[in-house]
Amino acid sequence: MNKPKSFVRNLIKSFISYTNKEDLEKIPAEEQKQFPFEILVAATKNFHHTQKLGEGGFGPVYKGKLDDGRQIAVKKLSCSSAQGKKEFQNEVKLLACLQHKNVVNLLGYCVHGAEKLLVYEYVVNESIDKILFKSGKQEVLNWKPRFDIIMGVAKGLLYLHEDAPFCIIHRDIKGSNILLDDRWVPKIADFGMARLYPENETHVNTHIAGTNGYMAPEYCMHGHLSVKADVFSFGVVVLELISGQKNSRFNQDPESQNLLAWAYKLYKNGQSLDIMDPTLVSSAVPDQIAMCIQLGLLCTQYDPQLRPDMCRVVVILSRKPTTLEEPEGPEYPSFRYSNHKPTASSSSTTGTSGDLNSHSFGSTINTKSATATASTSGLNIPIYDRHGKRLVQD
C-alpha cells in the first residue's frame, strides 16, 4: 500500500470509534480518489496567484481545470496551520462518506510529502454571504431562488442529521459556507468543525467553535451541542436571506440588539413583512415569505426543545403556507464587547480564524471561532477573546 492511501485509510480507521464501524466499512475504496500532485500542479497552473479563489486560516484555495475538462477547487493545507490539519482530517473523514446534491462534493485528496490537499467540485457562483452582503448584487437573487436556497439548505441539513451514514452536526452553518452552483442550487461546505452525534444522546458537551451571530445560545454559553444548534443557525440564515441583513452586523433598528429580535418585534406587531429586503418587492410571494419568517423565528427560539427538527422544517417548506405555532420571544444574550474579564470558571482560548475572500468556492473558513472548555455547571459563561473582551461579530 502506498503512503498517501495509507494516510487516508488510517484517518478512516481512527474515525471508527466515533461512529458505526459497519457503516464505514461499506465505503468502497474507489470513493477515496487519490490525485497525483503533478495533476493538481498542472490544473492550477502551479498554484498561480491568478488561480487563487481565496485565503483562509488553513491556507489558500485555488481554481483548477483537469485534462477531462472538469473544473475543480483545490484546498491546500498550510504546513504551519495546526487548525488546518485538523480540519483537513475532519473533511476527509466526513465528506468521503457523504453524497447529496446540497452538500459540496469531495472529488478526492492528495498527500505529497508535507503537502496535503483536498479536491472539490468547483461551484461557479458565489456564496450567499458574498452576494447578499459584499458584492452589491443581491438583486440577482429574487424571491424564487432565495426560497429554493432555503429549501435546499434544509434538505442538506436533513440529510446530514438523519439520512447520512451517521448523524453529523455541521456547527458552522452560515451564508459564507453555503455555495451556489450555476442554477443557484445551494451546497453546504466547510466540514472542518463538523462533529458526529452519538445515537441515543440528547446533547454532547464539547469545545465551542463557530461564528458569532449563528451559534445557538445553549451551545455558545454552555457547550451543549445537538442537531438543534444547526437548526438555530439555519433559522438565522433564513432571516438573513429574507431581510438582506447580516445578524452579527445588524444596525437597522436601535431598539433591537440583533436581526432576530427585530424580526420578532415586527412579527408580534403584525408587520413581519417589513423585514423584507426591498429588492424582493417585485418578486415577493407575501404568504410564502411570511411563513418563512415565522419558520425562521421558530428555528431560532432560545429553548432548543421548542425548535423544529429539520424533517419538520422540510415538510413545512414543502407545503403551501399553513398555520404554524407561535414562536416564543427571543431572550438572546448580548454579544457586545464588555470590559469584564473572564471568571475562573470560564477558562478560554481563542481559536484560529481566517477570512476566505473567494470568488466561487466560498468562505470555507470565515470564523472568529472561540474555543472554550465546555461547562456542565449550568452557569451562563460568556465567551471572551484573549484580551478579555466578549466576542461581538464575525
TrEMBL record:
Keyword tags: ATP-binding, Kinase, Magnesium, Metal-binding, Nucleotide-binding, Receptor, Transferase
Coiled-coil ranges from the UniProt annotation: none
Pfam families reported for this sequence: Pkinase
Single GO term (MF): protein kinase activity
Domain of life: Eukaryota
Binding of Mg(2+), residues: 177, 190
Keyword Ubl conjugation: no
InterPro entries in UniProt: CR_Ser/Thr_kinase (IPR052059), Kinase-like_dom_sf (IPR011009), Prot_kinase_dom (IPR000719), Ser/Thr_kinase_AS (IPR008271)
Biased composition (Low complexity): 345-354
Protein kinase domain: residues covered: 47-323
Annotated catalytic residues: 172
Chain intervals for the UniProt region annotation (Disordered): 323-360
Protein name: Receptor kinase At4g00960
Annotated organism of origin: Olea europaea subsp. europaea
Phylogenetic classification of the source organism: Eukaryota, Viridiplantae, Streptophyta, Embryophyta, Tracheophyta
